[in-house]
Amino acid sequence: MASSTGCTHYLRSCLLKAPCCGKLYVCRLCHDAEENHQMDRFKVREVQCCECQTVQQAQQNCEQCHIQFGEYYCDICHLFDKNKKQYHCQLCGICRIGPREKYFHCEKCNLCLAQDLRGNHKCVENVSRQNCPVCMEDIHTSRIGAHVLRCGHLLHKNCFDDMVKMGAYRCPLCMHSVWDMADHWKQIDQEIAQSPMPPEYQGATVKIMCNDCQTHCTVPFHVLGMKCSSCRSYNTAQDGGLMQQQQQQQQQQQNTEDEAETEQHIQP
Fold it and tell me: An example Gene Ontology cellular component term from the record (predicted)?
């Protein structure tokens, strides 16, 4: 269950005594993986030294053999680990991997973000309190870093990387493009120019909704993509059928009805 060098999650030389069940585990994650309930890290009061097995009050050094339980220790989160330049953010309520000077706490997003995002990101209120829309796991307390999309929504960094590898370019929540797609849109322009539609579809139009600028417009139909007339994005969704075909079908139906009525009048 534990060793003197910690677990796959943390490097530490003590075990936490779970306040919920009284069992000893290296960390809350190891506990939660084994038990049918979760450990409240903030309620941990006692630890056991892995060197001399002394059970004692949670602190950075053993009161009996004086070994250091962790290079970093937070007496709020009861986090023991090797030094990763961690710091405790009072507003987040948990420890973050630093260094502190490279991060700031965005009060609206309610999350610590890299300094280069200060004034350079779209705020979504309490965005970190939502689960990652890819893996559906918690983001706020996750040991995995968060990636901030252009729309302001968050994904785990590894989930974002996996999404990119699969060729997905839209936010799973709002469908907004996650990066500048201008070059890709130009490529689609060229492909459409080189791939004219069959005669029966030329001139056909369709209503669309743009996922990037939320504009509703009527544009030429093409199987390779429908381009927003406002922001020039191909990140669009079709809203209804082909308008020209509908008009043609209605006209054909009307012509058929007119012919039938004419034949009825001229019958002897």
Answer: nuclear speck
91-166: what fold?
Answer: Herpes Virus-1 (3.30.40)
pLDDT for residue 38 is more than 90 = yes
Domain-wise residue ranges, the chain: 6-84, 91-166, 198-247
Would you say domain 198-247 falls under CATH 2.20.28.10? yes
Share of the chain above pLDDT 70, in %: 89
As a whole number, mean pLDDT of residues 159-184 equals 94
Q: How far, in Å, CA of 19 to CA of 122, rounded? A: 40
Residue-wise DSSP of the chain: ---TT--SS---SEEEE-TTT--EESSHHHHHHHSSS---GGG--EEEETTT--EEES-SB-TTT--BS-SEEETTTTEEES-S-EEEETTTTEEEES-GGGEEEETTTTEEEEGGGTTSS---TTGGGSBPTTT--BSTT-SSPEEE-TTS-EEEHHHHHHHHHTT--B-TTT--BSS--HHHHHHHHHHHHTSPPPGGGTT-EEEEEETTT--EEEEE--TT----TTT----EEE-SS-HHHHHHHHHHHHHHHHHHHHHHHH--
| Section 179-198 average pLDDT | 94
Tokens of 127: 């965005």
Is the pLDDT score of 79 beyond 50? yes
> Does the pLDDT value for residue 216 go beyond 90?
yes
Residue 223 has pLDDT above 80, yes or no: yes
pLDDT reported for residue 241: 84
